[in-house]
Amino acid sequence: MMLCTGAATFATSAAPVVLPRAEQIELHSTRTGDDFRILVAQPETPPPVGGYPVVYVLDADLVFNSVVETMRIQARRPQATGVLPALIVGITYPEKDNAILRRAVDYTPTPLAAPAPEMSAAMRTAGGGADRFLDFIDHELRPLIAQRYATDASRQVLFGHSLGGLFVLHALFKRPQAFTHYVAASPSWWWNEAVMAEQESAFRKLPDAARSGRALLLTVGEFEQQPSRFSDNMPGGMATLTRRAMVDNVRAVATHLKPLAGLRVEALEIQGENHLSSLPQAINRGLRFALEP
Fold first, then answer.
1. Gene3D superfamilies given for it (predicted)?
2. Is 186 in contact with 278 (CB distance < 8 Å)?
């Protein structure tokens, strides 16, 4: 059957859009007992002699396609954009699971330190699975990816936003050698500031060699801590933004870590954007930061 619009004629059925050179893997973790959905996209060009750099992306159900296409567009001219072709590995959950609650457990080192009135009762008691989740990535997922694809062990990137950004910092502080580049976009430091401050302090006391060759990019939107025309639309409004102090926390973490030997730290405040609208620029700048030739 055909549908005529007057200007053109369309079929009433259509095939789904498929992301080229990408595949989906259903993976069961024997270490944690959990099920994960892994999305993998290869570059358009063959792997170099040393293998592709690998970018591990959290919240892949939301951002995988954006990361893949941003990488592919820029990697066509790495000499001009500063982005090498990379293997993108997205981590998410099967449809049967509540992704919001799963991420609240997997991305956080502890449950919420204090009740958050804008959160559901389930979210207030969730959390504390970050070390188990890091074990899954480090000991199960990464060996699988290295076995299935041509990868460069010397260029391994972890990207996360919001609670995912908190997890990126947790991974850096607890296992700085797990990845070479860490991109923490709008990290939710407020989830448990005391615990994160303790982790940061212990990280700063490590020998310089433990941080050698590591790099961290922190990003945050200008309107994550000050009024914008969208501030009143979020749960809790400006009171929530003030309490979470996203911009102040990113500035403080950058200030504390920049003097450390062996660690390259950059911080980017994205003008005119809020917690969600800053994400596309965080992806773009994060890839340039981690995949420069």
1. alpha/beta hydrolase
2. yes
Q: Where are the domains of the chain?
A: 20-290
With beta carbons less than 8 A apart as the criterion, state whether 279 and 64 touch: no
Neighbours of 87 (CB within 10 A): 23
Residue in 123, 122, 129 with CA at minimum distance from that of residue 105 = 129
CB 44 within 8 A of CB 153: no
> What amino acid is encoded at 71 in this protein?
M
The b-or-e profile of 143-181 (16+ CB within 10 A means b, else e) is: eebeeeeebbeebbbbbbbbbbbbbbbbbbbeebebbbb
> Is the distance from CB of 178 to CB of 157 less than 8 angstroms?
no
Asked if 292 contacts 218 with a C-beta cutoff of 8 angstroms, the reply is no
For residue range 21-43, list pLDDT tens digits in order: 999 999 999 988 999 999 999 99
What would the two tokens of residue 224 be? 């994550």
pLDDT one-digit tens code per residue, 241-289: 888 899 999 999 999 999 999 999 999 999 999 999 999 999 999 999 9
| pLDDT tens for each residue of 119-177 | 888 888 889 999 999 999 999 999 999 999 999 999 999 999 999 999 999 999 999 99
Rounded to whole angstroms, the Cα distance separating 108 from 224 reads 20
The 10s digit of each residue's pLDDT in 148-162 is 999 999 999 999 999
Neighbours of 239 (CB within 10 A): 12
Instruction: State both tokens at 72.
Output: 């592919």
Strand duo 181-185 + 214-221: pairing: parallel
Nearest of 123, 58, 129, 143 to residue 92 by alpha carbon: 58
Quickly count: other Cβ atoms within 10 Å of residue 142's Cβ: 19
* 20-290 topology per CATH: Rossmann fold (3.40.50)
Q: Is 33 left (phi over 0), alpha (psi -120 to 50) or beta?
A: left
